Each structure stands twice: as C-alpha cells, then as structure tokens.
Amino acid sequence: MTLTRRQLLKRSAGALPLGLMLNTVWAAQPVVEIISFAHPPMQSALKPLRDWLASQGGKLRVVEIDMESPEAEKRLKALGLKGHIPIVVVVDGRYKHVRKDGSHVDLVGFPSGPGAPVGMKDGWSVEDVQAVLKAGKP
C-alpha cells in the first residue's frame, strides 16, 4: 500500500499529540540514582533523602546501586568519578548542579544534616536534591 503525501501527513498529525503527551510524561518523571555503600553510616545519612523520595510517589524514578557492585564501578567511571566515594546522588544523569543563588553543588560524599557522621559532611543536603528536582532542571 502506497500512501500519498496528504495521507501520510494526516496520519502523522494524528500521532503528534500522542508523542507530545508521552514526552510530557517522560519529562515529568526525573530519574534519581543513589550510588552508595550498604554500610550503616551511609544508610543512616541517606535516610532523610530516601524518606523524602518515597513520599513523592510516582513523580520520579529512584534507582539504587550498591557502590561495591560492578554496575557502580561502570557508572562512576561514566560520570568521571574515581576514588573512595561513599555516596553519589545522580539526578537525570548529573551529580553537579547549580543552586538558585548561583553556587555549585556536587551531590557526592556525605550530605549535611542528620545521620551523617560528625566531621564527614561534604557540603550538599537533602534540600539541594529537592531543589534540583523541583526546578526540573538538573
């Protein structure tokens, strides 16, 4: 069956709204990757973030990766990270973000706030992750 230009355009136009709707759905669901060791200090430091992410329901997709897995090694290499890193939070493929005030924040290491070991807070917070996700611009 051969389609004329008119028939092809008519069929394509019908598919366009569906494509736009699907793109909106995909864009509305950011991906948050949490790459961390499964040891207690990391788990307690991440509890506030995980609690907040869980409260978001289906608004986002959360992927957990054990830092000691081959998958984590590949992911960190792809991000350009190396060395002993306890925690990395990646939002839509990036761990480096810009705050509203223009300062830069890397979601790497221990977050500040409750649960982080004393002396091991690396300058990012759960609020930074929330702001990145709420802004929709990682």
What is the topology?
Blueprint: H1 5-27, E1 31-36, H2 40-55, E2 61-66, H3 70-79, E3 87-91, E4 96-98, E5 104-106, H4 126-135
Parallel strand pairs: 1-2
Antiparallel strand pairs: 1-3, 4-5
Folded structure, characterized:
The chain is of the alpha+beta class. It has one domain: Glutaredoxin (3-Layer(aba) Sandwich). 43% of the residues lie in helices and 17% in strands. The protein contains four helices and five strands, in the order αβαβαβββα. A hairpin with a 5-residue loop joins β4 and β5. It is globular and about 65 Å long. About 7% of the residues have low confidence.
| CATH fold descriptor | Glutaredoxin
Order of helices and strands: HEHEHEEEH
Number of self-contained structural domains: 1
CATH level-two architecture: 3-Layer(aba) Sandwich
First-to-last CA distance: 46 Å
- The CATH class designation is Alpha Beta
Q: What do the pLDDT scores average to? A: 81
Q: What integer value in Å does the Rg equal?
A: 20 Å
General shape:
globular
The spatial strand order of the largest sheet comes to 2-1-3
- Count of strand segments: 5
Strand-pairing-aware structural class: alpha+beta
